[in-house]
Design brief:
The complex is a heterodimer of chains A (132) and B (359). Chain A has 132 residues and is of the alpha+beta class. Chain A is built from 4 helices and 5 strands; from the N terminus they run H-E-H-E-E-H-E-E-H.
Chain lengths: 132, 359
């Protein structure tokens, strides 16, 4: 009694399919909801700086004058807080993890904000309403 | 009387997953006393509550621990909701319960693996972690994070699990039950496990109670105290019996955790059957004022989150009493009188989570 209690499991694993993934050959598992890294779309950003304010890790810096949006990938904890709060939906969560960094200097990524505030038409009507 | 010598144990030791230091006072090979000291991974997370607004602080509360992360976040939310008098929607409470039980499953499987490793039973360790992987996959698929779920928020939850998906999850858990049974049979019945654990680190019922131990550590000494019975989140709608083992040794504590795996599966099954449809969160406005204590059962025992607000967006104080901190006096009394070779097993038997204890 009490001997070979692992026998069944061991035999199953000896002749069954390996539970290991063999990672570099097979890609790592991910799901639709996996929080990998933040993606920024400069053409939609209205420089409201809500993402900077709501970031619990102080990883985001927005400069409305220089029109840049900066993220420190080492500080970012991929919590999805900025994606949830963004009013113009310029931030999104990608399911792919960031590749490893080899030096601290390359962890800060700077993106240009290319969104331009639409000019008000001379007659004072809203552009959307005029176009129908 | 034999000559006393002091052997330092930790903070870096092959068996320790996290840094705790013990000065073991030995007479020959027998431990007569142990002096614990902590403070190697203090990160000052409680102080950060003054710098972050209370809705964002939940991300930091979640990162107090990397294993019981979800329960830390939901207990912090519970505390703030209690202080502000927020009624959380039913569905959110059920979802919190389901994720809490999933994190208990993953934590207990992790611990069973580490414990098997501490006795030198490597293939049992691998098998516990192989099963844990299925639980982590489920957590990732429903929340987006394997260990840091980030799904709890003040006023509800951030993500939903569709009812159809819940059914599938329950089906997979039921299928896993046989494998878990095979795993726990080894812990219950294997002769090498029994020889290694029976009668090691015995703490009587009274001593365990006096030392203020919590959770499976206390239940391993025969006191069926479980904070889930107080009925926070959706636990008051679910039926379960707290697991307790009277032996008070390492084997008893191991049995408690192995049996709790099945309690968790039962709770998830019940919650998935009863979960009502409805909103996931209520809108939270304003700033909290007052103070509140929230209690919850973590995989390691009772956790208390205390919050105090002064009517601004920043809380004044956040204090966490973690289960490991409460279990350290128990550890000291369990170590007294044991052999030096049994120390690693006894230390692991309280499931120490020093990251939690020091914050």
């Amino acid at each position: 009694m009490g001997l070979f209690t692992m026998g069944k499991t061991v035999l199953k694993q000896l002749f069954g399919k390996s539970p290991n993934l063999q990672y570099p050959v097979n890609p790592a598992k991910k799901t639709d909801k996996t929080r990998g890294h933040i993606v920024f779309d400069g053409s939609k950003c209205i420089s409201c700086r809500l993402c900077q304010k709501k970031c619990p890790a102080v990883a985001i810096a927005v400069d409305p004058k220089a029109k840049t949006w900066q993220i420190d990938r080492f500080r970012c904890i991929v919590c999805n807080s900025c994606v949830e709060i963004c009013p113009s939906k310029c931030l999104a969560m990608d399911t792919q993890y960031m590749p490893p960094f080899t030096s601290r200097e390359h962890t800060v990524e700077t993106f240009a904000i290319t969104w331009v505030k639409p000019a008000k038409p001379a007659d004072g009507k809203k552009p959307d309403a005029a176009e129908g | 009387m034999a000559k006393q010598i002091i052997v330092p144990f930790g903070p870096q030791h092959p068996v320790l997953p996290e840094p705790i230091h013990l000065d073991l006072i030995l007479e020959d090979e027998r431990v007569v006393d142990a002096v614990p000291s902590i403070g190697y991974v203090h990160r000052g997370l409680e102080k950060l509550v003054e710098k972050r607004e209370y809705p964002e602080y939940v991300y930091i509360a979640e990162r107090i621990c990397g294993i019981c992360s979800f329960i830390h976040a939901s207990t912090y939310c519970q505390a703030v909701e209690g202080m502000m008098g927020i009624e959380v929607p039913e569905r959110a409470l059920y979802l919190r319960t389901i994720w809490s039980e999933y994190s208990r499953l993953h934590s207990h499987l992790l611990w069973l693996g580490c414990f098997a490793d501490s006795m030198g039973f490597e293939s049992l360790f691998m098998n516990a972690w192989r099963l844990r992987e299925h639980i982590l996959d489920e957590l990732e698929a429903t929340t987006g994070g394997r260990v840091i779920q980030g799904s709890s928020k003040v006023g509800g939850v951030r993500r939903d699990i569709p009812n159809a998906r819940l059914k599938e999850m329950v089906g997979r858990l039921e299928a896993m039950r046989h494998e878990l049974q095979d795993l726990s049979d080894v812990f219950f019945g294997d002769s090498s496990v029994k020889t290694r654990l029976r009668g090691v680190g015995v703490v009587s019922r009274q001593d365990a109670w006096d030392s203020g131990a919590v959770g499976p550590t206390l239940r391993g000494s025969g006191i069926a105290q479980d904070i889930r019975s107080t009925g926070y989140a959706a636990y008051d709608r679910l039926k379960f019996e707290p697991v307790a083992e009277p032996s008070g040794d390492c084997y008893g504590r191991c049995m408690v955790r192995a049996r709790e795996l099945f309690t968790s599966i039962d709770l998830i099954t019940q919650a998935a059957e009863q979960i009502p449809d409805g909103p996931l969160e209520v809108k939270v406005t304003g700033s909290p004022e007052g103070e509140f204590y929230a209690r919850a059962e973590q995989p390691r025992g009772e956790v208390i989150h205390y919050v105090k607000g002064n009517g601004t967006r920043h809380l004044l104080r956040h204090r966490v009493r973690t289960p490991t901190f409460a279990n350290i006096p128990f550890l000291v009394s369990a170590l007294k009188g044991c052999e030096l070779a049994d120390v690693p097993v006894i230390v692991l038997s309280i499931d120490p989570c020093i990251g939690c204890a020091e914050r």
